[in-house]
Amino acid sequence: MADNPEISKLSTKEAQVEISRLQDELIDDGIAYYEKDAPLVEDHVYDAKYARLVALEAAFPQFVTPDSPTQNVGGAQTKSGLAKVQHPVPMLSLGDVFSLEELQEWEDRTVKALGSQPSYNLELKIDGLAVSLKYEEGQLVQASTRGNGSIGEDVTANVWTINDVPKTLNEPLTIEVRGEIYMPKASFASLNEERENQGQEPFANPRNAAAGSLRQLDAKETKKRKLSAFIYYTAEADRLGVTKQSEVLRRFAELGLPTNTDNRVIGKMAEIADYIAEYTEKRDSLPYGIDGVVVKVDEIDSEIDLGNTVKVPRWSIAYKFPPEEEQTVVRDIEWTVGRTGAVTPTAVMDPVLLAGTTVQRASLHNPDYLEMKDVRVGDTVTLHKAGDIIPEIGQVILDKRAATAEKYPIPTTCPSCGADLVHVEGEVVLRCINPACPAQLQEGLTHFASRNAMNIDGLGPQIVSQLLEKKLVTDVASIYSLTVDQLLTLDKFKEKSANNLVQAIKNSKENSADRLLFGLGIRLVGAKAAKTMMAELNDLGTLAQANVEKIVAIDGIGQAIADSVVKYFDEPQSQALLAELANAGVNLAYKSDNGSVDENSFFYGKKIVLTGKLEKSSRSELANWLEAHGANVAGSVSKKTDLVIAGSDAGSKLQKAEDLGVTVWSEQDLINAQQDESN
Ligand code: IVH
Fold it and tell me: What NCBIfam families does the record tag this protein with (predicted)?
């Protein structure tokens, strides 16, 4: 860390104070990272602090305490309910370097120790978490996490749910192998979207998401999280009959173990620069996260000769990519009110190109976070992507801060309705609790109409905003009194679009009640939880009267969701809303869709695009029908499209379908097929 005083210039007292402070901080950081899967600081900050502590402790060994983080191999001991597993051979971590110069120093030491030039196997450093897999006579008998290196956690049941990990090897070998469990970027993005929909904190990066998912006590939960694996190491290469790490990987693949095939054998260290450059370039487009390159001495005999230090192997080193980072200037801090009334600050910045996309906004999450980062309007900040995906402000460049820059005031009133904001006990967020707050209504109504909720086609955010402005709606129940004449007063509405929307609203009354329950936007109640509760209780009226005991008794529903539901329906205005919805004719009963998706249907699993004007039914009705028959209705035509259904005046989508040779049907073709289906 550049700002730190040189160690040789420190007095003993100063060193002692700094060592003790770093030890404390790194223990806290470690607990947040390993136990809570919610890091307090970014990896490179942790790495820099850790490196500084190692250097200080080397110079002042009298201050090394047994509980110093440098004395543990890995993270803090975990405290979850999983069984502990003792690793017979400790699961070591890797030493890391951050520059080609440091890599060269490592190679100089290696060549000196071996007395000759080794060749190296270069591998990608997968950003996940290490696991050990034990196979006995080819059968997977145990999977465990690294834990603190000596003792990990038993995650066998969870690893069983990961498709990539074979339960049986292609040969009846007894062997312990190690590798990385990771969450592909796409799974990470959809998991976080779902978590945010459900009012849960998103995971900071795919690694934390993978760790959180693997350490679930319920393996069914792990299965939903779509994890993958790469296996890259065994201490028992002799059992594979090979003598090189590069051959170990090849043998793993023969055994049916998932391996990363981007490895490369090089004869001298100078060749690593090309590999690093190549993967720095490819990094963004890989479907999984990597945070560096692992260099391994290829010859296993040399590996054994070099051996390990207490903490890390001497035969391998990790080169860590510098964090992809840009600087930009903060122009504004916007406070927005979400559906649940949470008032969140977002930094709005000059746009910059970062890891493949243009970024202009980064969430500052809540007032505490803003306070901690102390971002001010006009500040130059570093910007990176957490887990390669989510834009995040690193730090303010204080040297570039204008003397006049002022701390950003935390609002005391709602930016939308002006009501006093509250800090609910036990929460970090600031909330507007005015149920009539227009911003909350805007978000709440848009959510109600959204696809996974009541699926009211044509009732998007712009229309909702106009309806609120004209005071045509006041809550979700008032949607059901909208008339064609009222809609005609809105911008761009014509007879046909007004009729279609009124019809879509009417159709939504028939939805299964789980959609309605999800649409109400009760905190923590996502689409899945809504379905689970309604499938059990059948009637939304029953749920509205249920107590916490009755709701937690439902398989798959936890205390927090049950509390939230009861709290919601305890409010008289929630009961009144439900009564209004019922009066408007909205269905409160659960309609099971079990069995309605017929896997033998012609449409099952097909990707279908609708385009042009349809005569016999509206596009949304057709889309619903197709989805009910297992089709995936998409908005644009690609090579993967199976079928395009084109009405009259179809334009570019039809053209594209024809160019790509995708099958095109008329509306009549579809009607014929629908009749065939029902016969
Ligand atoms: S080898 C004894 N190879 O990086 C050496 N580790 O920062 C075992 N990692 O603990 C590790 N990709 O969790 C190895 N290709 C790779 C890796 C890799 C990711 C992880 C692993 C390790 C950590 C060290």
Answer: dnlj, PRK07956.1
The enclosing H or E element of 376 equals none
Give the mutation target among 44, 89, 126 for probing the ligand 1 site: most ligand atoms within 8 A of CB: 126
Is 30 inside any structural domain?
A: yes
125 lines ligand 1 (CB under 6 A): yes
Q: Identify the pLDDT of residue 100.
A: 93
Residue 575 sits in a domain whose CATH number is 1.10.150.20
> Does 364 contact ligand 1 (Cβ within 6 A)?
no
The alpha carbon of 34 and the centre of ligand 1 are apart by a number of angstroms equal to: 16
**Does ligand 1 come within 6 angstroms of the Cβ of 94?**
yes
* Ligand 1 centroid to residue 125 C-alpha, Å: 6
542 alpha carbon to ligand 1 midpoint, in Å?
52
- Location of structure tokens 């579809």: 670
Domain count, the chain: 6
- Looking at the fold, whether 297 and 396 belong to one and the same domain comes out as no
Q: Is the shortest distance between the CB of 587 and ligand 1 below 6 Å?
A: no
Q: Which atom of ligand 1 sits closest to the CA of residue 318?
A: 7
Distance 21 CA to ligand 1 centre (A): 29
Last residue of a domain, one of 508, 526, 542: 508
In terms of residue numbers, what domain contains 526? 513-583
How far the first Cα of the chain sits from its last, in Å, is: 74
Catalytic annotation, pick one of 49, 112, 125, 606: 125
Together in a domain, 409 and 291: no
Residues 446 and 357 in one domain: no
Q: Are residues 103 and 214 in the same domain?
A: yes
Ligand 1 pocket, residue 667 CB under 6 Å? no
Task: Profile the chain (679 residues) by mean pLDDT over runs of 10 residues.
Answer: 70 87 80 64 76 81 73 42 84 92 95 96 95 95 90 90 93 96 90 75 79 83 89 96 97 97 94 94 90 96 92 94 88 91 94 80 91 95 79 94 92 94 82 89 94 91 93 95 95 90 96 96 88 93 96 89 94 94 96 66 85 80 80 83 87 85 87 74
Phi, psi of 461 (to 5 degrees): -55, -40
Residue minimizing CA distance to atom 17 of ligand 1? 125
Rounded CA gap, 364 and 392, in Å? Answer: 8
Specify the amino acid at residue 67.
D
pTM higher than 0.70 = no
CA distance linking residue 448 with residue 365, whole number of Å: 24
Same-domain status, 255 and 107: yes
125 is an active site residue:
yes
Instruction: Consult the annotation and say whether 339 binds a ligand.
Output: no
Cβ-proximal residues to 560 (8 Å cutoff; 6+ apart), any chain = 524
Is the CB of residue 294 below 6 angstroms from any atom belonging to ligand 1? yes
DSSP class of residue 3 equals T
Residue at 239 is within a domain = yes
User: How high is the pLDDT of residue 7?
Assistant: 81
Per DSSP bridges, beta strands 342-354 and 357-363 are antiparallel
Whether residues 39 and 165 fall in one domain: no
**Mutate which of 96, 125, 261 to test ligand 1's pocket (most atoms within 8 Å of Cβ)?**
125
223 falls within a domain:
yes
Buried b (16+ CB within 10 A) or exposed e, 517-544: bbbbbbbbbbbbbbbbbbebbbebbbbb
> Among residues 390, 387, 392, which one has the least CA distance to residue 182?
387
Q: Is residue 136 part of a domain?
A: yes
